[in-house]
Queue: 4 jobs
Job 1
Amino acid sequence: MRVGYLCTFTPKELIDAAGFTPVRILADSTPISLASAHIQSYACIQARGSLEKALRKIDVDAVVFTRSCDTLMRLADIWEIATKMKVYSFEFPTKIDSTSKNFLISEIAELAKKLEEWGGKITFDSLKESIELYKLLEVELAKIFDEKPDYELLFKVQQMKVKDALNELKSREQKKSKGGPKILVTGSVCPFLDVMKLFEDVGFSVKDDLCTGTRFFTFKYPEMELRSVEDCFRYLAEKYVSKAECPTKHYEKDRRFERVLELAKDCDGVVFLLLKFCDPHFFDYPQLKQKLEEIGKKVLLLELEFPVIEQLRTRIEAFYEVIMC
Amino acid sequence: MIVAGIDVGSLTAKCVLFEEKVIAYSIAKVTPDLENTAKAVYSDAVKKAGVSAEYIVATGYGRNKVSFANLKVTEITCHAFGAKSIFPSCRTVIDIGGQDSKVIAVENGVKNFVMNDKCAAGTGRFLEVMASALNVDVSKLGELDEKADKPVNISSTCTVFAESEVVSYIAQGEKVENIVAGLHNAIASRIAAMAKRIDLKPDVVLTGGVAKNKGVKRALEEILQIKILVPEEPQIVGAIGAAIVGKNYASRGRKSERF
Ligand SMILES: Nc1ncnc2c1ncn2[C@@H]1O[C@H](COP(=O)(O)OP(=O)(O)OP(=O)(O)O)[C@@H](O)[C@H]1O
Ligand SMILES: [Mg+2]
């Protein structure tokens, strides 16, 4: 069985351990038609596009919706009504503090139960193995992205079992960065590979803070020995609260801003690549932009719906000229 | 050195032959064959000038399709350099073309810029659609604006919906002059919203084909509460800028096709 998810705070380890294939659901360039009957046009293209795919044809039997933005939460309800897929809402805590870990552990246990209800089987051995393999995959992806981001690869490995993903990594050749001024691309999801390619075409060397980029594989790994399924649940809870920060969560201190500012330090400019109508990111934008400008960074805002490549190219090239001038 | 700046925009192609100042220029409509459009305006300008160019810079939407150009630069940089060469006091450029409008903060080059998103509201295309709904020529919009006594309110920012509003005002017997002035106010408020996202500093220079429309200048001055300068031929400012960028670039002995 293939189990879909949209939010990267979904513990894929559980799905994999249950014997299912975790599949990241992303919008593509399919025009929105059927979805319009269920969702308003002022929802982001990731929400509308994913639903459109689900209504047309998608090779997924069940979907785990993980609490993040309001749109995704309502999308879970729509999905349940409008499709024949099984739907489960995984309640990831919104406020991340000392109390959230225990709550998350119990939610992880609930999700495990649900996956078994769906016919999966999670054992200590299978879970421990999935945990170890995902860590391997994530560490490898981080190394690759450090050298040169490969979004095509990243999209691909999110459509398969972690074992196959590791094999996929083995069989590839490391691409070398062409250099050029460095930019940080920050934002939510960018399901369009041709947009990611534009930055490189224009001559930038890219670093990202995207949910479809490094945020997929950036964690701090807890130091603990795993002796039982319960240990594994605790491990996953710790791992996922340490995941690269997302604006749909409330952190103690300004953890997200601190991360973005830190990532921007060695960059010549910062591009906000935001999906139109993405509330969590747009609410942060004015303040984060100001903080970046205060540390001397040039900032460009790109709003995406269905991308018009030449219009984007002009903006990105002009930004390149601003930086090179 | 004689340099050509060719600005292949979404609606019109402009070519300027430039030495210390503009020697000759030409403006033509864009056809889907961008390379040939560029060749045609270039040869027309060459014919007028009686000399050809030693170095060619392409800008505008079609820049990457001009294979005979030595250098390709975006219209944002070109409008900034062009406006500054005409008005050295220029700190901000507002370029309103056929498909795009941009607000550019100018320092030594471009400091910052904002562009409209893909919708046509706030562009020349918007005014063309409205002018045809009103059955007047775009070049007459400025005169009509002057005769308005009570501009109507156009509340839709979308071109399609704004056209329905115009149709509804016509049906109510509203004076064409007042509808036109209302449309100019609508464009100006779109531009003002963009301008708020960058630090708008005087002097402000208005460029692009739409700058020929005095009504747009009037509306922008009212909403921004600032005096606006318009070059004698605002439509070729991007092409002039392209030539100037090319001059600087070639004199530094650089050879790459990109900035
Ligand atoms: N005399 C005039 N009065 C009013 N408007 C005019 C006049 N001449 C041209 N325009 C308007 O100028 C617009 C074209 O401007 P311009 O040539 O700067 O656009 P472009 O460079 O092709 O477009 P873009 O920069 O968006 O790619 C047209 O929409 C046209 O209606
Ligand atoms: Mg133009």
Note: Residues 151 and 182 of chain B are 5 Å apart (CA to CA).
Job 2
Amino acid sequence: MGEVKKIKNLKEFSTSADRFEGANLLCPGCAHSIIVREVLNATNDDLILASSTGCLEVCTAVYPYTSWDASWIHIGFENGSTAVAGAEAMYQALKKKGRLKQPDRSTKFVAFGGDGASYDIGFQWISGCMERGHDMMYIVLDNEVYANTGGQRSSATPIGASATTSPAGRKSYGEKKNKKDMVAIMAAHNIPYSAQVAPNKWKDMVKKIQHGLNVEGPVFINAMSPCTTEWKFDPKDTMMISDLATDSLVFPLYEIIDGHELNITYRPKHKVPVEEYLAAQGRFKHLFKAEYKHMIKEWQDRVDATWESLQRREEARV
Amino acid sequence: MAEQGWDEFEIGAMLRSFNGEAKDVALTLQEDRDYSSNNSFTASVADWRIKKPVFNKDYCIDCQFCWVYCPDISIISRDKKMIGIDMDHCKGCGICVEVCPTNPKSLLMYSEQTDEEQALAAWPSKDEGEK
Ligand SMILES: Cc1ncc(C[n+]2csc(CCOP(=O)(O)OP(=O)(O)O)c2C)c(N)n1
Ligand code: SF4
Ligand code: SF4
Ligand code: SF4
Ligand SMILES: [Mg+2]
């Protein structure tokens, strides 16, 4: 186990030497890179990284360039998880045989994947990694849509969002299904740590990433990643949208230890109505038409119910 | 290498981020690294910008919100101080301006052509109204 990097406050955090570089091709204002920076800057350990196909991968490995200052691999859409799990298994084998070239260094294994790559396409691969107990962290960059291929719905797309394969129109309010609860599914593998994070809460993020990296065994992180292009908001507003998401409790922040002990890690002082979160994004614009307005109340009720259930689970410790 | 045609790609390419041995990258600041020509650090996206942020250090309180929320590693902070903007990598998103808490703001967006000296000379004063 490596020494945990000391990050008392934002000033101290800002002395980090980034291992993720600019002139990548992510959209201006993309939250993927804000999350990646917060994750990588949370540690000084050596990192073995992988990405599944998706915006992050496509935009940071544009031949002949790489934007990664640590070992990084891409194979396919579905297997960011197993790419890193394979590297980790190799590392453990070499360690056992005493053949590591630098046995004293602390090395961590982290995979990034989009929601499409994680909730849908690479689902069983991640499940396998969690079940086999690899010492690795899997992070979903959850922008609730297949952004890189033009905004198709995924099983992370929330109800009422207009996506290119579930468009809103005269006869439809957009996506019909509610978002899959991926954190619960992953926690059900009884892994030591799973959590939901958001880029605006950098301190909560750093704490969870540091905990996750230092725990032994598989860790699952769902990171909310507002997408200026597909959620349809101005690039300058990425952090404002993130604040609305966490403060309306559309994206509650919590962690689950050993598959059962749930802790809520952020309680907004001023709860924002879900309506404000929806109104700030073009993908929900149609919900404000008379015929779909009932959806807004349903949204609020659903968010309230989820929050209530999280609080009950926190109390019950089961 | 940047000049290579589409059919000259190396299959299963391995790109090196640095020239020679890279040790303790996490403890080495950008200016002390030996970046290879394959590192996107050596490229520029300056021509993406329509607007650019201008920094007025007179009002800055070094809170580092701009540093942590800049998606493009373009806020340069050293020794806990915000010292400038990396104009090769800034895409002009405007996030840094939005999250800057000072009044007046220490960062403001201007059109790409704006003269920085002029922008600084005509910096708005404290906004007494609603913030
Ligand atoms: C097996 C396979 N199917 C489809 C694709 C095409 N594809 C590339 S990226 C992508 C969307 C990625 O969506 P997501 O995982 O949510 O990441 P995001 O781009 O939203 O960050 C798709 C469908 C592919 N590369 N491989
Ligand atoms: S489409 Fe969305 S996720 Fe993809 S690079 Fe642009 S802002 Fe980021
Ligand atoms: S405009 Fe965007 S990319 Fe440029 S420094 Fe500000 S936050 Fe960074
Ligand atoms: S956000 Fe504003 S006040 Fe804070 S460090 Fe940046 S420029 Fe200075
Ligand atoms: Mg996605």
Note: Chain A touches chain B through 51 residues (CB under 8 Å).
Job 3
Amino acid sequence: MTDTTTAPTTQTIPELQLDGVSKTYGTNLAVRSITADIPAHKISVMVGPSGCGKSTLLRIISGLDQPTDGSVSFEGKTVTGVPEGLAMVFQDYSRSLYPWMRVDKNVAFPLSKVPKAERERRVAEALEAVGLKDRTHLYPWQMSGGMQQRVAIARALASQPKLLVMDEPYASVDAQTRADLEDLLLRIQRELGITVLVVTHDIDESVYLADHIIVLSTPPSIVAETIDVDLPHPRDQVTTKADPRFVEIRGHVASLLRHKELQTGEDRP
Amino acid sequence: MTITQQLRPRSRPTTAARTRRDGLTLPVRIGLRLLVPVVILLVWWALSRSATSGYFVPSPLESLRAVGAMFLSSDPGRLFLGEATFTHFVPSVARALAGLGLAILVGVGVGVVLGVFPKMHALFQPLVHLGRSLPSPALLGVFFLLFGIGDSPKIFLIAFSVVWPILFNTIDGVMSVGEVRSQAAAVYRIPTRLVLTHIVLPGASPKIFAGIRTAMSMSLIIMIISELQKSDNGLGYLLVSTQRDFDYPGFFAVLIVLAVLGVVMNFIFLQIERRVLSWHRGVTAQND
Ligand SMILES: Nc1ncnc2c1ncn2[C@@H]1O[C@H](COP(=O)(O)OP(=O)(O)OP(=O)(O)O)[C@@H](O)[C@H]1O
Ligand SMILES: [Mg+2]
């Protein structure tokens, strides 16, 4: 890491550091050793084949699980429990939201310790940001999948996180909704300047969202490569994806994933 | 486990959409609903006219008159209720409700603890299975010994008998709340108290309600059984005493009152369930 005098210090200190993180389930070595820096105020995307331990890593990062070896530090402090300032969006929105609470209650629920007036303001702002401000009195099951995932994102935003982690947040919505939610994430991240770590196994999505890509190998996984994505902002589903640079990075990530799979002899489309 | 499996279909509330989906017009549906009761009344009436059983089986009309004579009155000061209502019906229902209430408190409380802590569950599972398989009506004598005479042995017997479906369903329900929901609670640092009251209990509530519904009908049966001996009031006592006095219309009147009680309690229960579990109807309708 080279220190440039002009860059603000916050840019140079990684928000989140993984240091030799490994995870063994019984005798199954799922994650061999992951060392990676997640830069602050950027979107980092972790991409890797199915079963390579992406969800496991996110659980470790968010303090829900312990690494077998190695450590995670967030803002310089070793993670032992759920770190303050972390919010998470789960893949399965229908299981992570509470179907007995209306949308506004779902978003407000994590804010039980926040004074009422401020809580209401934050909930309204978060729902406004995801475009659901007139749907606050619906139940989650009265909404489409994409809308439910917006609620989950609003819940994360309302807690005013410094680090937002998302585990395959768009894997269960249709292509159009997915594109909308990708753009929503890009916009919100630019507006709030928060650090985002997204896990996906969709190569296009990883390049489109990322400032920084961490490519994982097949299990037991290691970091195959980290790539800085210098595509300009604001990004656009049509023009960005037609950008020769996008195509190039995309091809590179694809070949990395393919190469790693060939190496372990696995047969994947 | 078998209890919850049996209960699952019944725990599905019958929604308006559901009954409309059966494709019957209103007159046809009402006609079908009335068919069975009318047949029962006819058979009953035929039995009351038969030479062999007629002596023991009063006619439906005669039985209804007995209901009026025993349980109703013309006194507005007593809310038009009769002697038997105050001396037998009210104490019976009060004991059933007290037993059921106690069973709900204990069943839900213990069930949440066992559901949340797998180790406690493993530790107490044998005991729970033992308790469930005890033939509780046969234990009435033991309860009289333990709790003396009066209301308490009966209330405790009812509670002990009906707590099991509530307990099993609560454990099952708590476990069904799901790992992702608890992870979400952990990530957002929800205080334990709120996790219990706003996540665990509501998440388990569909199953808990199914358990309570079974427990409710059981509680009426155990209520009767507990009053068959060593009692001086209650509907069970009244069943025994009317038979002893060859008062067959009175005996049938008590049966009618019991049937009405069961129907009314079930109706009230469904109204409460409908309000509390409105979200659950929506979820299941969406996933169907
Ligand atoms: N609780 C667990 N117990 C045992 N093994 C586990 C557990 N969780 C994950 N694993 C194993 O660890 C490996 C990585 O799983 P993980 O869910 O982290 O992969 P992933 O990259 O998120 O996969 P996907 O893309 O399919 O979501 C898998 O081999 C899985 O079987
Ligand atoms: Mg995963």
Note: Residues A 25, 28, 30, 48, 50-56, 201, 219 surround adenosine-5'-triphosphate (ligand 1) (CB under 6 Å).
Job 4
Amino acid sequence: MNLSKLLPYNKHTVKSFFEFERTPLNIFMFLLSIGLFTFMLIGIVIYLLHGHHAYGVTRQHPWGLLIAMYVFFVVSSTGLCIMSSLGHVFNIKAFKIVGKRAIIGAIITITTGFVVIAFEIGHPVRMVIYNILTPGLTSAIWWMGTLYGLYLFFIIMEFFFLNNDNHKYSKIFGLAGLVVGLAAHSNLGAVFGFLVARPIANGVFFPLYFILSAMVTGSYLLFLIYGWRYKMKFPPEVKQSMTTLAQVLGLLLAILMFFEVWRALTAIYGLMPERGDIAIHMITSKNFLIGEVLLGMLIPFVIIVLSKGRAIKLMVYASMTGMVGIFFMRYDLVHDTQLAPMMPLKIREYSLPPGLVEYTPSPTEWMIAIGAIGLSFMMYYAADKFFDLDH
Amino acid sequence: MARYGMALDYKSCINCKACESACKEENGILLGADNHRIWVGVNEIEGLFPDLSIGSSNFQPSQCQQCDNAPCQTVCPTNATYYDDNGVVRVNPDQCILCTYCMQACPYDARYVDDRTVTVDKCNFCSDTRLIHGETTTACQATCPTKVRIFGDLDDPESEISQVLRDREHYSLKAHLGTKPKLFYLT
Ligand code: SF4
Ligand code: SF4
Ligand code: SF4
């Protein structure tokens, strides 16, 4: 069978594939993507040579930057999937235009997430085998991984049918992807929420918060994707949609801040050990105040409120700070969970830090984590070349 | 089949670390601060001279608590962590994918990455080296000069450990988490 009939795509020669308008911004992004990707490859080589010893993770802090980055990417994916489904699954008019680009974005980000986690899990191949042979049904990681695998299949099918203009099937797979994606994503929250040993993470907060912050992330990414697509010159109907998106985002941010305030208050109240003290440490850290609050929530929120959602160009820039903030949210979520040492009596013996457990990502971790963004950019560039993402 | 547990008369501990050495030797544990299955916790003396609190100064030897309701087992995505017939929580290195979720979930920091198998490992009550041969001792217990450790079958009412747990007050670490540890501290 002819592939182009099954999956319509634009044919390219090597030359035409690398052809793009030579604007300074384009060239910058081109070099940035290649540079980041090279970084990632170097990081991967170092990891393959030295294993986890190339990372800054320790016995007391087994999860590091790569887990945070994995979460970052899969939250992005779920967020894009949720926001796109508002249009073509739930028929909300303003979101109709976002369908295809969001779905391809969701496929790309989750694929990148999987690539990142493959270099964090010690034995990824063994994982695939024993996930099936001896499934640990009480494990949130098992559910999260399995459901995300299913989710990736559904959204690929959704894109496939969207690309074929088969809206009936794309809608069915879109709905399936949405439901499974939500389940997978709240399970990722539960990976942390189920940790009875860690009072700061234990509880219902993360499974719910993950969905909410996914929607915020998805909105930021849509601004970035569309800002890039139209190079800031938005046609009127896109402008209309983006304004609605900004207003929805404003509401989401308000709810997110409300969540955060109550999370902090309930965690601190009563100063329960390993929860109150950790929460105070958390909310007084620069990561939280500058990263999460200022960049991640306040700047975009203020712009939306002051402009009533109409300052779209500004929102594209604010979405960049927003994504930086989201990165801090993921990093802090992983790091703060592990701050409290589990057996404080071991202090002297093994020179545990007397206070909280410390962790600094190693250069290798940075290379893989940040380099993965380059991988996303490259995949997006290729998708944009091969598929018509606008119609 | 037995249900093994250990009682620790921890006030007799003199922090000689013979148990740590014995465990390393017995199980071939690699060197390095992170690689340990067993440790002796040190409570610093509180107060300023001459008003030192002698009671505050003690040692708390510990290792995997062999929980009856082990968080490390529930979170394992591939069932690499399992309860064996003796109620000992074990890791099957062939199945472990090194996700380190169990290290995250264990409330006692009892797990570490073994660089020989590149999987997570922990105290297994010397199952591979002793219990499998029908011995009913562990290396750390056999070596202890002040007889801090009493190892035995909790299901056997006549065993020394069952008797001592009947006779003496004891507590378990972080029992409020519902992990049902099989390590008992005699007071
Ligand atoms: S102490 Fe930790 S490693 Fe040992 S059984 Fe309990 S949870 Fe598992
Ligand atoms: S690191 Fe190994 S034993 Fe621990 S939860 Fe993962 S698969 Fe199970
Ligand atoms: S019982 Fe064996 S494996 Fe466990 S701490 Fe003692 S010597 Fe080590």
Note: Chain B touches chain A through 41 residues (CB under 8 Å).
